[in-house]
Amino acid sequence: MNRSELIIQIIALATLTIACVLVWVVTTEVFHVEGEILSVPMGIDSGSDLIDRLYSMIPLLCVAMLLSIAFAFYIEEWLSETTWYYRIINQQISILANIPSLIYGILVICIFLFQVKEFLNFTLVLAIVFLVVPVIIRTTQSAIRGVDLSVREAAYALGANRWQVITDHVFPRAFPKITGGIFTVISRVLAIAALLIIVCELRTSIIQDVSSYEISSDVFVLISLALLSCVLSSFLQINRNS
Amino acid sequence: MENKIEISDLKVYYGDKQALNGISLDVYPNEILGIIGPAQSGKTTLLKVINRTLEFTQDFSVEGSVKLDGVDIYSIGDVHALRRRIGMVLPLPVGLPLSIYDNVAFAPRTSGLRDKAELDVIVERCLTQAALWDEVKDRLDSLGTKLSGGQQQRLTIARALSHQPEILCLDEFSIAVDPITTMRIEDVLKDLKNEMTILLVTNLVQQAKRLANRTAFMLNGDLIEIDDTDVIFSENPAEKSTYDYVNGNFG
To answer: Please, which pLDDT band fits residue A66 given cuts at 50, 70 and 90?
Structure first.
């Protein structure tokens, strides 16, 4: 391992450590103010309110996905793999993409619900960005790398420029796997949404009576949709010869 | 008569490893230049330098000069225009994931040709030249990758011809092709010689003997000898290693 490699590893580890400390501090803070949690006004009273807000996030979700795909193409096709910033970006994206989505859910609840004490749309925006962007970038990257070098060479040898090679050959070949990545992300988002709805509804029902709480049908719908998109995504990401 | 390609003191390094140790050779217009030599002798590298696809390899460096019609190819700004002047056929067929028609029409389209009638003419001409037209004329819309290995290789030849290159580089084209098809392609190459210059890299020394006007023998990144094919394959070429290789004593 050479020196630059070592520095990159250290930076990656440092970010991870900072993230861990942040989570730890926030969660202990929250447990500390446990008594207050239930009386904090959230601005959201039921799960269906939350679902309405989630609907309003769909355009954002689409934009985030498109930008991530574009960014993945940029770093794979334009940045040289030997540069230090390529490796740092890669390392960071890997770390972010591997964090379980539950962590993001907890972070949303902890930081914003209880610390900011108001359920802002900004909360959802941030959660969606962290959930969506790294995973889409990662799957798009691996889809692009899965395209044979020989296909590129053949296309370049015919005089195509970089843009033509990407639009005519790399993108069509990578497309099934990119769609697979999109479904992975959709399933992550739906699962977290289901979790948030349960939290919201539990909160209101605890105040009244815990035993009267029933999981709403919205949650079941979200969870089954999440499972469905999981299956779809693994189906799409299976290696197939075109 | 001016030389088509002039290569002088060409050195190529992959990282620390030197792949070509200072090669100088000239290619005449409208000839078939056979390039023979065992594996690792730098034949493919030479072709990749000429059409500048070596640039996709990490960590390479090139010294010396390669001139195409008197112009140094590394001073040409538009590398895509350069590559359109050079047709390249790789050892294993690379079917672009497109229909047969689109495979051949790809290069003309990249240079901006959109007229369907003109494209039809080009596709038919190239497929005919590559001895494939009769087999595929009824199914031009099916996927190029669904053809058999030999057919795919002829498709790549048709594709390489589609932008009417001045130079055609063939890199061991007959590896994936059966002998009968190979003979048919060789006949095609003899005709094509009138229109373009052909660089034929081959592992089959007999193929170079059948086709080439002149033959170059390369070994471990050195150009050992270049001369008329008759001389190379005669009893007394200038270098003994040439004689040994051609007659199967090594390699």
So the answer is: very high
Cβ atoms within 10 A of the Cβ of B182, count? 17
Give tens-digit pLDDT for B158-189.
888 888 889 999 888 888 788 888 888 888 88
Domain assignment present for A122: yes
Q: Which of B88, B104, B162 to mutate to test the interface with A (most CBs of A within 10 A)?
A: B88
Asked if A158 and B145 come within 8 Å (Cβ–Cβ), the reply is no
> What's the pLDDT score for residue A38?
46
Answer whether residue A40 is part of any domain. Answer: no
- Structural domain count, chain A: 1
| Mean pLDDT of the region B103-109 | 87
Reported as a single tens digit per residue, the pLDDT across A138-167 is 999 989 988 887 888 888 888 788 888 888
Domain that holds residue A139: 3-35+45-237
A156 and chain B in contact, CB less than 8 A:
yes
Domain holding A154: CATH number? 1.10.3720
Q: Contact, B38 vs B219, CB < 8 A?
A: yes
pLDDT, residue A40, reads 47
Residue A130: inside a domain: yes
Task: Give chain A positions within 8 Å (CB) of B156.
Answer: 154
CB contact under 8 A, A156 and B83: yes
A153 touches chain B (CB under 8 A): yes
Confidence class of residue A71 from pLDDT cuts 50, 70 and 90? Answer: very high
ipTM: 0.73
Q: Which of A149, A159, A168 sits opposite B80 (nearest CB)?
A: A159
Q: What is the least distance, in Å, from the CA of B122 to any CA of chain A?
A: 15
- Best A82, A156, A158, A169 member to test B by mutation, with max B CBs in 10 Å, is A158
Confidence label for A46 from pLDDT (cuts 50, 70 and 90): low
